[in-house]
Amino acid sequence: MLLHNKETSSLAAELVKACPAAEVAECNSYEGLPEAIARFRPDIVYTVRFAGSNGFPRDALFGNDGPQWVANGGAGTDHFGLWDADIVTVTNAAGVAADMMAEYVVGAFLHFTLDVPGLISDQKHRIWRQRVVRPLKGSSLVIVGLGKTGQAIALRAKALGMNVAGTRARPRQMENIDEVCAPEELSRLLAQADFLAVCAPLTANSRGLLGDAEFACVKPGAILVDVSRGGVVDQRALVQALRSGQIAAAALDVFETEPLPANHEFWSRSDVLISPHCSSVYAGWEKASFSLFLDNLKRWIAGDPLLNTVSPELGY
Question: Within the chain, what is the greatest distance between any pair of CA atoms?
């Protein structure tokens, strides 16, 4: 087994403890992965996208010397591109950060409905002025992507008294969600959205999913939070929607280019909250991800089906 992360010594110790018979190697860089795989020829690789998608050595993972199983330490697998599922199995850690990301989404909604930037500014200038805050209760939330993160958002939204609708590839009745629709019905849902949470994976079908046409359908004044992957929301179209007021505000944790270029308009807009792709990063997330991997490893050894197997076509 090969462990690929910026720091692997503690993971290696845990792996050897859990599976004493394992032969374990470590790699702590993108540049060193091809040579490590060619030399070690691992059956299994546990890998984390720790330095962004650009330059990620996916060809080494899925080349002739690649493993039988690639265990992705995060949820998104768009940095892998396509692979042959008959040759290699890919799993992810979907759900490990779902609760944290849901808290981020609700916190971002409150950031704008309570006008936290305005409150901070008034405090800084010692200004006492009357304000009216905006409730979440009774408002409508549309969740784009009802996977584990989307469902965690719905749970919290219902607790706050929100009306919740969302999209998923195979619609079915779901707990805490008033209406579940196919992606083709997104435009209809957007027309009723006071709030919009985007948490769909980046695939060929979801790239540019929210563009000019979709923003034109959104209920004017909606607040958007994006915790999906850069590319699901068309940034150019979002800028236009913010300028026109169609979107009142946006909290963005993901971007088409990361880090976000210093000259991008988002930096200077008071109606945009920027975070550095950190909505899923909390103390203990790596431990939780690796624990999921160790649980799957027991299944692999026993010949049982793995949890969180990812379809290369669907991206989840």
Answer: 68
